Amino acid sequence: MQGIMLPRTLLARRGPSSRITLAQGSKNRHVQLYSCLYSTVSRTYIDTHTHLDMILKRLRQPHTHYPALCKEVHLNTPMEACIHVSCSPATFEDGLRLVENYDNVYGAFGVHPKSAKEYNLSVAKRIRSILLPTSREASVHDRDMHNSHTAENDETNTKRSIESGNNKQPKSSEDNTRTAKDGRDTSDKPFVRRYRAIALGECGLDYSQRDSWGGDEKIRHEKELQKRVFIDQIQLAVKLNVPLVIHTREAEDDTLEILMRHLPSTHPTHLHCFTSHVSLAVALLKSHTGLCIGFTGAVTFKSAHVLRNTVRKVPLNRILLETDGPFMAPEPHRGKTCVPSMIPYIAECVAKVKGVDASQVYEQARINTHKVYGI
Ligand SMILES: [Zn+2]
């Protein structure tokens, strides 16, 4: 059965506390509609990974064009929200602007492996300041002042980790303990509505262009750099207790080794745009119970038999729907600029592969999104 269409004013996020935030013209107003709508609206979605800045650039449109993107509806299924990913330091401010201006845009901030050279201590600090909840900033600041030796140690660890490749996990400091005890704050406190900056990433490993890196020595050097930057961001996500978004391409063995060593098994994690060998998916689903796997429009490509076989092997309760727009527009729009509203083609394809109704895919993917991102 097809769910009801949400009016545009209700194209909004479902909060973790059974609430819906009205998206248009009614900031900060909440209504307790989540429970009743959730039972009747089975077809809506959050695009869990998109690059709005790149989409708008390709479309040659300013930020203000975003609401027009939201109006696009494919296969009669409206978009609820999206997670915009800023994956290089130069894009962070643009990303923040999108997140701050639009109620149904959430943000992830991190450094992509292809930009690993741009990662340094001040970038790590910027990511930390973006992701730290405002409501806790004062207490964290006070705590840092009182525990300056701890803060210094953290910075030293970060610097050492990046510069010398020391990948040892830092000892559990008071800071770590407190953050873990606090847990990630997913309540509707002001900072959530103001920033909606909720995750760290995408970060990871990408060896797909190794043939252009030069000789063996340069390949080794580039791989080591990517690994150090990846590990440092994993540790930062764990320390801040925020979801981690991982990019991995043609780097199965190193990805698995690093995650087994550095990522706690229950940490909320999105292994995004999965195109790696199915064995990596199987191993990580087993070892990391907090991890879900994101599939993009690539699953709809006619030649993507291997990827659809991976979809078949990943349980529905571990799947996230994502476009990775502007890339990989699904069939029948392959080759066009991919936008968040194209998720329904991916959902339909996953449903077909799984032999279930599309409503089931939307509903379970929505639950999985809440599980990983708390939204
Ligand atoms: Zn991406």
TrEMBL record:
<protein>
    <recommendedName>
        <fullName>TatD DNase</fullName>
    </recommendedName>
</protein>
<dbReference type="GO" id="GO:0016788">
    <property type="term" value="F:hydrolase activity, acting on ester bonds"/>
</dbReference>
<keyword id="KW-0378">Hydrolase</keyword>
<dbReference type="InterPro" id="IPR032466">
    <property type="entry name" value="Metal_Hydrolase"/>
</dbReference>
<feature type="region of interest" description="Disordered">
    <location>
        <begin position="137"/>
        <end position="188"/>
    </location>
</feature>
<dbReference type="InterPro" id="IPR018228">
    <property type="entry name" value="DNase_TatD-rel_CS"/>
</dbReference>
<feature type="compositionally biased region" description="Basic and acidic residues">
    <location>
        <begin position="138"/>
        <end position="162"/>
    </location>
</feature>
<dbReference type="Pfam" id="PF01026">
    <property type="entry name" value="TatD_DNase"/>
</dbReference>
<dbReference type="InterPro" id="IPR001130">
    <property type="entry name" value="TatD-like"/>
</dbReference>
<feature type="compositionally biased region" description="Basic and acidic residues">
    <location>
        <begin position="171"/>
        <end position="188"/>
    </location>
</feature>
